[in-house]
Design brief:
QueA_dom2; alpha/beta; 17 strands; about 375 residues; single chain; Thrombin, subunit H; 9-stranded mixed beta sheet
């Protein structure tokens, strides 16, 4: 276990950074990573063959909004990326040229009558804005003047395209609020879901609105000092009950994406029981973390030195993930949001989870604290 950011670095040729998704989506490659032994080179379309009756796939049903805005303060251009909506209807945002902003400033937007007032400024480029549009009017405002906040490694010199609007949306997307797509979900199609259902595995969704902080690098040399940005998550009572029932019956909980995993772990108590959740989470999962709620993880390949590579290292083992990523690079797997995927097994479950999972005759009934 290491707290040094440099220990989570690896070499990635730029040619392996995917600029568009596989077509059809389930044709993306899938690196199957068992807990030990050789890796298996598969495709996402092979996923159903790796499932069994009683397993439960948990996907994120957040929908991406047009979160990239260009505002004016007088004649000064201000770049804004929406991060998350706050309880009072204001928005936390990340701002380029933030030094030009003052509390009380009014921002305007070319081509729109709507404005935004600066309510607060933060160190590091954060701010809180109140927009003059709300509800459906705000949705129309974003459609008129906003753009997808594609990750910077997807090169679009003239901005996101109409094809990106389709490609950067998952089949599960239902609840608007994400800045970035939960990219593991991008691989799923109706035919793949039909094949999953035919195995006897089940599916459910939760909601984690991925924030702009997902693009921010780890700047600290000591990762224990890194600050995770909060994101809003929702797990309903029905979904929590389905997850707990699947686990008690011996099924495996398979998180589709790190966002689903982070929310499940945020909502699980010390016994591994998942509770309803409707709050913000800033959980930071890194090596040494004991997993409570997830048995398997399907996820894309992540950036060097990123919190997500730290998360998968915690989940499957640091050396195991170093070897898996080296295999992926050598085998020409495509990386990042539009890239290929891997399927991981948990190598570091919490001991009390093992006990509660095996002792189904005496469920815990716990209502304990959330992470």
């Amino acid at each position: 276990m290491s707290d040094r950011t440099e220990d989570f670095d690896f070499h990635l040729p730029e040619t392996l950074i995917a600029q568009e998704p596989a077509r059809p989506r389930e044709n993306a490659r899938l690196l199957d990573v068992p807990q030990d032994g050789p890796f298996h080179d598969r495709h996402v379309s092979d996923l159903p063959s790796l499932l069994r009756a009683g397993d439960l796939l948990v996907a994120n049903d957040t929908a991406v909004i047009r979160a990239q805005l260009h505002a004016l303060r007088g004649e000064a251009r201000i770049g804004i990326t929406l991060d998350r909506i706050l309880a009072d209807g204001t928005w936390h945002v990340l701002v380029r040229n933030a030094r030009r902003l003052r509390v009380g400033d009014t921002l305007t937007f070319t081509g729109s009558p709507h404005t935004a007032e600066v309510l607060a400024r933060e160190e590091g480029g954060g701010a809180v804005l109140r927009f003059s549009a709300e509800g459906s009017a705000f949705d129309a405002f974003l459609k008129d003047v906003g753009a997808l906040a594609l990750p910077p490694y997807i090169h679009r010199p003239h901005g996101p395209t109409a094809q990106d609007d389709k490609d950067y949306a998952t089949i599960f997307a239902e609840h608007k609020g994400a800045v970035a797509a939960p990219t593991a979900g991008l691989h799923f199609t109706p035919s793949l879901l039909e094949a999953v259902d035919a195995t006897g595995a089940e599916r459910c969704t939760l909601t984690l609105h991925v924030g702009a902080g997902t693009f921010l690098p780890v700047r600290e040399n000591d990762i224990s000092k890194h600050h995770m940005h909060a994101e809003r998550g929702i797990i309903t009572q029905e979904t929590a009950e389905r997850i707990n029932a699947a686990r008690q019956a011996g099924g495996r909980i398979i998180a589709v994406g790190t966002t689903s995993l982070r929310l499940l772990e945020s909502a699980a108590d010390e016994t591994g029981r998942v509770h309803p959740f409707d709050a913000e989470t800033s959980i930071f999962i890194r090596p040494g973390y004991k997993f409570r709620a997830v048995d398997m993880l399907m996820t894309n390949f992540h950036l060097p030195r990123s919190t997500l590579f730290m998360l998968v290292s915690a989940f499957a083992g640091t050396e195991r993930m170093r070897a898996a990523y080296a295999h992926a690079v050598n085998s020409g797997y495509r990386f990042y949001s539009y890239g290929d995927a891997c399927l991981l097994r948990c190598a570091n479950p919490i001991d009390t989870y093992r006990i509660s999972h095996q002792t189904t005759a005496h469920p815990t009934g716990a209502t304990g604290a959330l992470s």
